Amino acid sequence: MCIVSDKYDFDETENESNHEVNQEESEDEEPSKAIFSGKKAIVGKEDADRISQQGFYGERLPNAELELSPIEMLHLIERSRIVVETPAGNVMDAEDIVSQVSQTDKNLWSKYLVFRDLRSRGYAVRSGFGSGIGFRVYERGDKPGNSVANQLVYVLKEGNPISLNELDLVTETAATSRKELVFALVDQNGEVNYYTVARMELQKIGDYE
To answer: For the sheet containing 32-37, what is the strand order?
Structure first.
């Protein structure tokens, strides 16, 4: 087995479905409050629908509150959609969140840059699953919960190599789930480039001495 890759460009053409993903809050609307807890933040049920539906953020909890990941927190802070506070009421900025979460996730900022780039292109993006998969990306116009993702994105930081075993594992995961695998490479300037990755089986032809 060998791995082949090609440069990949996510479509940047804007259309009505992109606008639905990227719609902004009105300028005079107050940001929602989110309480930081561990590696997550919780938005109260009174604001959960507004944050969740306008951009497909977070996971709904049984009590109707909304749980946000660190990457979603950073994106919503940047867009002035939420204010994150500690349980004691101290406001946390993006640097505070990165400082805390990076202790256990050193690639947090690289993942955020990829998330932000994909969202800016009009794609709905959700967290990945196992095998180091960073994100699931949906077709234009598809909504998480109503559709399934068609692409898996694995985030790489320039200078941090991926092992052959890990590469084999993620390509196998994509093949098994019948999704296209895309590698997002974040360079030292924070720019993101994408590459498609696929498995190729090499068959032995004839006998060799």
So the answer is: 59-60, 66-68, 40-43, 32-37, 82-85, 91-92
pTM for the model stands at 0.84
pLDDT grade for 205, boundaries at 50, 70 and 90: low
Quickly list H helices, 79-163: 94-101, 108-120
Name the residue among 42, 29, 45, 32 with its Cα closest to residue 82: 32
Q: What is the dihedral of CA 55, 61, 67, 69, to 10 degrees?
A: -90
177-200 pLDDT tens trace: 899 999 999 999 999 999 987 665
Q: Provide the pairing of β-strand 151-157 with 135-137.
A: antiparallel
Q: In whole angstroms, what is the distance from residue 41 CA to residue 128 CA?
A: 18
User: In whole angstroms, what is the distance from residue 198 CA to residue 103 CA?
Assistant: 32
Q: Spell 182-206 as b/e; 16+ CB within 10 A means b.
A: bbbbbeeeeebebeebeeeeeeeee
Which residue in this structure is represented by tokens 């990829």?
Answer: 114
pLDDT band for position 16 (cuts 50, 70, 90): very low
What domains lie within the chain, and their CATH numbers?
A: 2-200 (3.40.1350.150)
